Amino acid sequence: MQTSALNTPPTRRILGTLAALAISCTSAAAWAGSWGMLLGYNNPAGSKLGLNFLYQGAPFGFELGIGGLGRTTTTTTTSGASWSESETSIDLWGELDLKYYPSVGLWRPFLEGGLTYSLGVVGGKRGFAAGSPFAGGGLLYSGSTVLFHIGADYKINERVTYASAGFGFRL
Asked: Residue 80: left (phi > 0), alpha (psi -120 to 50), or beta?
């Protein structure tokens, strides 16, 4: 009997963590206007479309972005034999950053720094990696319901600068 990769204990933990994050985004702090959810272009870096959870504090905040979720199945067939095996991998990647807002109001400039991350499950084995530190800044429009930001970051290891944008709503 083969177990689906989506039903393995590590995958359930990853999905449980994501569910807990979603629940925390709808907590009392979220209703107080501190939390937002944005769709981002190149935010996290490398994603055409990312999902970002933003906490706006004063003067600090943070953002957790999900840039990709993938599932890949690899099949290996032995030459001359009548058997093959397949292995499914599931990976989730994105960015986590800390933001500094030097002012409050509708338009909030920010400085940020963070890391990229990747969570994966392959054949019952799980892994976590963090790396690619980055630093940058931008401008956040923080209306009563709508959020919008533009920014630019520099990936230190890759020596690459990239622009990003996001549009979303307060939760």
From this structure: left
Helix H or strand E encompassing 10: helix 9-24
- Looking at residue 23, its pLDDT comes to 59
Q: How far is it, in rounded angstroms, from Cα 103 to Cα 137?
A: 14
Query: What span, in angstroms and rounded, lies between the C-alpha atoms of 4 and 11?
Result: 10
β-strands 50-55, 160-170 pairing: unpaired
Domains of the chain (ranges plus CATH)? 5-71+84-170 (2.40.160)
Of 15 and 1, the one with more pLDDT: 15
Alpha helices in 25-106 (DSSP H): 28-31
